[in-house]
């Protein structure tokens, strides 16, 4: 009969299984971002109808919230027998958010530079026309243009934008971990049923 694995090996196996689950849910979030981006492109939201493209950030936030929720709930119900401390849920949520943020950042960089180059500049020109029509001053236009120019740089797309997305994931992970945490009830001390002792 083979000996049972020791506590160290069991802990390592649980950590590996947890990471596999977290990566799976992060990949699900990335696929959601990819699907939305390609759909928006095909519908012309990144070429002509930029007013609809503004919903992209809301969609990404919803995808991240759903996948982080699913990942934390999976850890609680499938891996830890229905128990979850806040720190454990936050750790899982942050892991999912971090992986998804940087993987989606790589895809969006590829999309903006290879699949649909120049769409960010066209989006800025559409936004600029709206600002001018609304009577924006030159100083305000300059500020928005500076932001648009920075958003098209490689360092922003590969690093700064994923970090911004990661901060959003951290907020979502905090909220989800607080909602889904479940600690076992404290054991009540056993009461003595025998006769009282006399000195």
Would you give an account of this structure?
Mean pLDDT is 85; it is low at 187-192. Helix 5 (119-133) packs antiparallel against helix 6. The protein has one domain. With 199 residues, it is mostly helical. The protein is elongated, with a radius of gyration of 25 Å. It is built from 7 helices and no strands.
Number of separate domains: 1
Mean pLDDT: 85
Question: What distance lies between the first and last C-alpha atoms, to the nearest angstrom?
Answer: 54 Å
- Specify Rg, calculated over alpha carbons: 25 Å
Kindly list the characteristics that best describe this protein.
single chain, mainly alpha
Brief overview:
The protein is mainly alpha-helical and 199 residues long. The chain has helices at 7-42, 50-53, 56-79, 86-115, 119-133, 138-151, 154-180. Helix content is 75%, strand content 0%.
Question: Secondary-structure map with pairings?
Answer:
Blueprint (H helix, E strand, L loop, with lengths): L6 H36 L7 H4 L2 H24 L6 H30 L3 H15 L4 H14 L2 H27 L19
Helix pairs in contact: 1-3, 1-4, 3-4, 3-7, 4-7, 5-6
């Amino acid at each position: 009969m083979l000996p049972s694995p020791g506590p160290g090996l069991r802990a390592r196996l649980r950590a590996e299984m947890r990471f596999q689950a977290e990566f799976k849910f992060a990949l699900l979030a990335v696929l959601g971002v990819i699907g939305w981006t390609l759909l928006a492109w095909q519908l012309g939201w990144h070429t002509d109808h930029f007013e609809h493209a503004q919903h992209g950030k809301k969609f990404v936030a919803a995808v991240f919230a759903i996948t982080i929720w699913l990942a934390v709930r999976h850890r609680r119900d499938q891996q830890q027998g229905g128990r979850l401390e806040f720190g454990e849920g936050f750790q899982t949520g942050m892991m999912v958010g971090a992986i998804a943020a940087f993987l989606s950042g790589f895809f969006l960089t590829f999309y903006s530079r290879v699949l649909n180059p120049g769409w960010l500049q066209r989006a800025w020109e559409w936004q600029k026309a709206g600002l001018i029509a609304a009577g924006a001053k030159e100083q305000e236009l300059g500020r928005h243009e500076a932001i648009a120019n920075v958003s098209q740089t490689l360092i922003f797309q590969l690093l700064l934008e994923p970090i911004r997305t990661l901060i959003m994931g951290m907020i979502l992970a905090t909220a989800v971990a607080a909602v889904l945490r479940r600690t076992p009830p404290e054991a009540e001390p056993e009461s003595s049923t025998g006769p009282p002792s006399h000195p």
